[in-house]
Specification:
Blueprint: E1 5-10, H1 17-26, E2 33-39, H2 43-59, E3 65-69, H3 72-76, E4 81-84, H4 90-99, H5 113-137, E5 142-145, H6 150-160, E6 164-167, H7 171-183, E7 189-195, E8 198-206, E9 209-210, H8 212-218, H9 235-241, E10 244-245, H10 250-253, H11 255-264, H12 269-284, H13 304-316, E11 321-328, E12 341-349, E13 352-355, H14 364-386, H15 389-398, H16 405-418, H17 424-427
Parallel strand pairs: 1-2, 1-4, 2-3, 4-5, 5-6
Antiparallel strand pairs: 7-8, 8-9, 8-10, 11-12, 12-13
């Protein structure tokens, strides 16, 4: 890699972007960023968020050129790292994903169930286009993606493109942090097994002692994400599972309760995020502001800067550190296929990620759940890539949050029509290959 770094952030009009800039500032001595390109198709958000990012960098006197552009090719040209955080259709599309399923007795959520399915349908074609342009313009660059649903996007890109990429989520970081603090442990080693937003901690080891049993005896939960209305897991449930679930498992373990809560909510999470986003954009437009405002932590992206930029640091500086990432299994979990994207601990260095194998894994509940949801994810990718309604129906019938054919078919047709402008694969005469 060149001595100086070029980083491109695709979707930089996101109000999360100052989190990433904060992470870059913290690591200014080890990441010599020469050029930062902020790219977004929303001119207003690009300008407002971009100007704050520029002020943050200037306040720290970092000699880094900041370029704002709506041109993807300009952003990608000769980049060393590409950070993807796109939301196709923006927050109004999320609100449709959350509200329309409720009419059919289905959970509306942006990454799980049929809502997450449609987010994948909109996002995968755009991400594949980005990887095609990367092949031309920055073939050696690393793509770090945290656009949701991150695991399904990893599955699609690593099996349908030649890009070097890792998928990323802040859930494991927040889980580890809260458990370390609760158990008062300094540097425990966690075994973390699952798919993105379907994951469990199955071991907590420090100084030769595994603290998982005592954690289960306590009924320990990890901290819930701020974007999930959480009721937590009972001691009986975590002991039955034999592991500590991520808060997203609440959608699967308490499906009826979650549906009722969503059905009775006055506004959706997407509508709440739209309010927060407008408030943040108002704050960001203050020309005197040159740091990340506290309100940003009320979104679900807390600690993204730490997670994303520390991963860039680990690759660029060949740190051989352990991070949780989404990557191809390649034998690390012997009960999953090599080509399955999984979320687990891996050693990160200049050559990317080497998953840390989990031998003799024997939690049948987790194995069966992962296989079932992975079957859904494989068909979801096939539907997104090929525009196959048959694959879409097969996917939704295997999703534990959908399952009913009539509900799935009718909801699919309504959401497909609602998102028509973002779903070319279902509406062009020649399906995408």
């Amino acid at each position: 890699m060149s001595k100086k770094l070029k980083i491109a952030i695709i979707g930089s009009g996101s109000t999360y972007t100052p989190e990433l800039i904060e992470g870059m500032i913290k690591r200014k001595d080890v990441l010599p960023i020469d050029e930062l390109v902020l790219m977004d198709i929303d001119a207003r958000k690009l300008e407002t968020v971009g100007k704050l990012c520029e002020r943050m960098i200037q306040a720290e006197q970092i000699p880094c050129r900041v370029i704002m552009t709506q041109d993807l090719d300009e952003a990608l040209l000769d980049a060393d790292f590409v950070l993807g955080q796109i939301r196709v259709g923006k927050l109004p599309a999320r609100v449709l994903d959350e509200t329309i399923p409720l009419k059919y007795g289905l959970i509306g959520q942006e990454t799980c169930g049929i809502g997450g399915f449609f987010k994948a349908m909109r996002t995968i074609p755009v991400m594949l286009h980005i990887t095609e342009r990367m092949k031309e313009l920055c073939p050696d660059a690393w793509l770090i993606n945290f656009s949701n649903p991150a695991g399904i996007i990893t599955e699609a890109l690593l099996n349908h493109s030649e890009v070097k990429m890792l998928g990323l989520c802040n859930v494991p970081f927040n889980m580890f942090k809260s458990i370390r603090e609760t158990l008062k442990l300094d540097q425990p080693n966690f075994t973390y097994v699952g798919l993105n937003h379907l994951s469990w901690i199955t071991a907590i080891e420090q100084d030769g002692t595994d603290y998982l049993k005592s954690a289960l005896d306590m009924g320990l939960n990890s901290e819930a994400m701020k974007n999930i209305p959480s009721s937590g897991f009972s001691k009986e449930l975590v002991q039955m599972v034999g592991a500590i679930p991520s808060s997203y498992l609440e959608y699967y373990y308490f499906k009826e309760k979650k549906y009722k809560l969503l059905k009775e909510s006055e506004i959706t999470r997407g509508e709440k995020c739209m309010q927060i986003e407008e408030e943040l954009l108002g704050i960001y437009s203050d020309s005197e502001l040159h740091s990340k405002p506290e309100l940003l932590s009320s979104r679900g992206g807390a600690n993204y800067s730490e997670v994303a930029i520390s991963l860039v640091d680990a690759i660029y500086n060949d740190k051989q550190e352990v991070h949780v990432v989404n990557l191809l299994n390649n034998g690390a979990l012997d009960f999953m296929k090599d080509s399955d994207a999984v979320e687990m601990c891996a050693v990160i260095g200049k050559d990317g990620a080497k998953p840390i194998p989990v031998p003799d894994f024997n939690n049948e509940h987790i194995i069966d759940y992962m296989r079932m949801v992975k079957a859904y994810e494989r068909e979801t990718v096939a539907a997104a890539v090929n525009g196959s309604e048959d694959a879409a129906m097969r996917a939704l019938l295997m999703n534990p949050l959908v399952g009913d054919y009539d509900a799935a078919f009718n909801c699919f047709q309504e959401l497909k029509e609602a998102h028509k402008e973002y779903l070319p694969q279902f509406y062009t005469k020649e399906k995408m290959s």
